[in-house]
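Aim 2 progress. For Peptide deformylase, the working sequence is reproduced below.
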Amino acid sequence: MKFPIIAYGDPVLKKVCAPIDENYPDLKQLISNMFETMYHAHGVGLAAPQVGLPIRLFIVDTGADENDKNKFKKVFINAEIIEESGEPWAFNEGCLSIPDVREDVMRKPNVRIKYFDENWVQHEEEVTGMPARVIQHEYDHIEGKLFTDTLSLLRKRMLKSKLDAISKGNIKADYKMRFPNQSKKR
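Predicted structure tokens for this construct:
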């Protein structure tokens, strides 16, 4: 089942999310639906707040390179970034909750993260490169932050009319969205 993506301006995107436990209702189905939603929207990551749930859950699938190597597909439950390291690098990021807005964001290339997977196995690992960047972006979501929060005040002012249009539902996306003034339907 494809969920609508929650649009910029909805308060759920600004909440620090709550941890869950292995008894969270229908967790496997939720994860499956999140992957279906993400793939339909052509994303590489999706956090639970983006489907209206203020819980510490996100998924990542950066795909594989041309040699079908370096596939990175994981579920992160109750994730905690322990360390970010390396020289920050800029990359043009976007977000399914903020369609048609892309900006350069500085992030460190390495991340050490502790999390549970979908089978409640705990992991602690170091991730580098593009997967680390996607993890940091999705982790920000469960911390109540958006990539636009990292931008300079001047850049935010320049984007204000676009962001206002998104929050009012005056945007077309290739996937279903739910805007702040719409009633909740899932």
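The mean pLDDT is 94. This observation will guide construct design in the next reporting period.
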